[in-house]
Model the fold of this input.
Amino acid sequence: MNTLARPVVGARLRAMLSTREPAKVKASPASGFLRGLVLVLGVLALAPAHADKVRDLVQVAGVRSNQLIGYGLVVGLDGSGDQTTQAPFTTQSLENMLQQFGITVPASARPQLKNAAAVMVTADLPPFAKPGQTIDVTVASIGNAKSIRGGQLLMAPLRGADGNVYAVAQGSVVVGGISAQGKSGSSVQVNISASGRIPNGASVERTVASSFSGGGDLMLNLNTADFTTATRIATAINRAYGAGTAQPLDGGSISVRGPQDPAQKVAWLGAIQNLDVQPGDAPARIVVNSRTGTVVIGSDVRVSAAAVAHGAIQVTISEQAQVSQPAPFSRGGQTAIVPSSSVQVSEEGAHMFKFGPGVSLDTIVRAVNQVGATPSDLISILQALKQAGALHADLVVI
Done:
């Protein structure tokens, strides 16, 4: 129902609900139910359809985060640092740092550092970050340190892709994993203890230039390219700010003309991001993760008429060593180990089920669950249906 018809429908509903029977006629329960039903239907008709905000569908071109990386040292470990014989760069880094403080390590000295570890430091510099603001950093060991729990990251400059320093990191490392090892060699480990994070561990030193404050049109890039969604976003912007304000360039980008004043551009873009747009339907797609066995099937997946039979062949090979001994009082006989192999082949009963034309997702899942197919079996069935031309969806294997 379009928006122009809503006031008419509302007027009709008000006229219907305001019409009363004469006082001498007593309303029946059925008439009250029908009147309530009409009221509910009117409210549902006037309620807007589910829509997403523009800010959840697009990203502004040029407004993005930047990756930073750096090299540093974590000190203060409890004997779980790098073994310098296998990670000599840790000792070299420490010697270079000490030279900056006027301390010279003799060339003949080979310090055994167990409380220090060489690490790589990474961070994401958010858009519009200004000098003095802090960001989180991730610290990961690059040597053979067993754990960096309780360590202190020394000052480490973080550089961007252009080689310039944009932030400086330093602070205590927070590790979510733990590991322990006994003298006998027994060990236990929970999660990863060779990497951790430093909340607000880096201070921004330089601002990244952005094209947002400059002149010219803005470019809105869709998170998921779709021609229908791009057209609807441009239509919503033109309806709110006049024809010609937005123009879809392709299925993934929209050119928007806005004010030249940066202050007005911020408020104007914020209003555009709050517009409600009904996105296009998602494509029919099946995503299969062959490593974990995860299968995700979209709601619009359809299957043509097809019959599927799936069985499994199992081959079991067992080895059992037998000892052969010579006869009593024999001469020259020796005890020998003779291998004995047993090979068995078994085939499970194949289950056959039939898909009718235009089968939906619910029917597919129900049929596969009835035969007790595993995720691996489901992957094989979907691949066979795709090759047979009965699966009308994109099969993506990752």
Remarks:
- The longest helix spans residues 29-46.
- Residues 6-46 form one domain.
- The helical segments are 6-18, 29-46, 88-100, 227-241, 262-273, 361-370, 375-387.
